[in-house]
Amino acid sequence: MPFASCAAAEALEGDLEKVELVDASPDGGANLRDGYRFTSGRAVKSEFMPKRMEWPDHHWIPDFDGGYLITVSQRAKQLIESFEPGTHQWLPVEFYDAANNFLEMHYFLIACNRLDVVDRSHTTMIIRHGMWRPASDFRDRPEDIPPGLDPTAPAKLVFNKAQIGRAHLWFDKHLSAGYWISDELGEALCIGDAIARSGDSPYVFPSPSGTGPITARAATRALGRARGSLGLEHFRVHDLRRTVATGMASLGINPHTISLVLDRISVTKGTMTGAVYVKYSFDREKREALSAWTERLDLILSHNGLPRKSSVCARKAEVLRRSEAT
Fold it and tell me: At what angle do helices 311-325 and 183-198 cross, to 10 degrees?
């Protein structure tokens, strides 16, 4: 279902600063202070939660808004509850436009899985004051670094599946990177994303009018509208191809597969072999490359406290999976 990294709505009532946890008792972890009330993995008191929000007219309302405070649509709520029935807290909120016209009913999603899922035997980080921190943070205090742990080596954070159990949406009480989503739920949300965006359209990326796909210039125009707020004066949409190609190469993906993902004519049609003799689609290889790049983007996002699912790459991989199946 559609993702957004930051809520654009403004509360028309309520006071988020006054919202308190139902249970703030310490458990050896972190994120129980006021500033982390919505990322603690515990239910909140609903007294001061907004019941009405104003949504900017020029923004579409995502089904799953993964900012500091998660809001979801009815269909996203139903999907998440199908994975974890009766687990999370759902607080209804109505969205209105600037003219006070009702738009949609959504829900604040308060994820109520507060877990400790880091595998201590394989993680190369140090836990201090209830939080995991890289060993490099302790270079000036070598006495705090356990024997055998190299503070100059890249930090490695490993989750233990047994500790995760059957959870699909959770907060780790020793991490401040936001919420985590299981592969199963993330894939379901991405499939729902493609369906929700496409509707009855045969296109994966339909145009706003619904009469066809988005045009080749759509992404460039969107970047132009957002350039000022992004602070990327010289950035072009085409630069994303360079980013993807470089990133995939760093993951060990071979140049031929990268070129196929980029749909380089020189690879697909540039030779007699490619144009005439090779009829294999390479969908499996492209899907694996996109999945690997999705995981890398998820890691980058997690370091910035943003949602862990890179839905566009995952959605494209899902399209390849479906085409391969047929």
Answer: 80
